């Protein structure tokens, strides 16, 4: 039996990559997991079915994280459906790899809406439901600290802002026994950044551990942050980045 029995989690962007690994891991620990996706209906359905086959509980919802009203609504809906909400894991994110001259204001707005504004909206709504022991865990990026190559200025800005947001939320919610943490991964082998993709030859020489990480490794850190063992951890950004920021 996992250590999250009876708990309810909402994970944004759980249909693929890191988010899917987090959904599987939290469900394996016993949590009931609601997760969102925006376009991958079939993969989302398969994740939910795989969790159920393994004896867990997961349900997928189509919610566009670029729409903060929709994000607030799903937080309220999941809390109402289960009578509680214990963990909000804001994972959904988008990136572009373009020099600033080619990055449009529309690109910038979409990145900030998905990676930052929706995280704030989700936290605002979750604060209405979380009780002592509750957690807000956000997936940031190693680029919140180091931007070692060109083409990701808007993405890096959206992720760096999460550092301040996490500290501020930790101060707001700490008195209620709710912790708020940021997980900052380095290169993780997903559709966004495949280990065989165009970035690999640039980033591999920058790593202390010269390989891409896995979604399951990030999910392990999220499971720790959701557990009682992390009760005194809040307001921090925890790197899981193969040493790219070392
Ligand atoms: P993927 O592109 O592999 O998966 C993205 C997930 O987010 C999918 O489930 C996708 O849903 C969902 N998503 C994207 N946009 C929206 C939206 N508007 N509304 C709802 N869901 C959305 O990305 P990763 O798994 O690699 O990334 C997950 C998080 O980790 C992101 O925040 C990313 O910035 C961060 N990260 C990733 C790193 C990496 O190297 N991979 C490194 C550092 C941080 P759908 O399937 O429906 O499109």
From TrEMBL:
<dbReference type="InterPro" id="IPR057326">
    <property type="entry name" value="KR_dom"/>
</dbReference>
<protein>
    <submittedName>
        <fullName>Short-chain dehydrogenase/reductase SDR</fullName>
    </submittedName>
</protein>
<dbReference type="InterPro" id="IPR002347">
    <property type="entry name" value="SDR_fam"/>
</dbReference>
<dbReference type="InterPro" id="IPR036291">
    <property type="entry name" value="NAD(P)-bd_dom_sf"/>
</dbReference>
<feature type="domain" description="Ketoreductase">
    <location>
        <begin position="7"/>
        <end position="186"/>
    </location>
</feature>
<comment type="similarity">
    <text>Belongs to the short-chain dehydrogenases/reductases (SDR) family.</text>
</comment>
<dbReference type="GO" id="GO:0016616">
    <property type="term" value="F:oxidoreductase activity, acting on the CH-OH group of donors, NAD or NADP as acceptor"/>
</dbReference>
<dbReference type="Pfam" id="PF13561">
    <property type="entry name" value="adh_short_C2"/>
</dbReference>
<dbReference type="InterPro" id="IPR020904">
    <property type="entry name" value="Sc_DH/Rdtase_CS"/>
</dbReference>
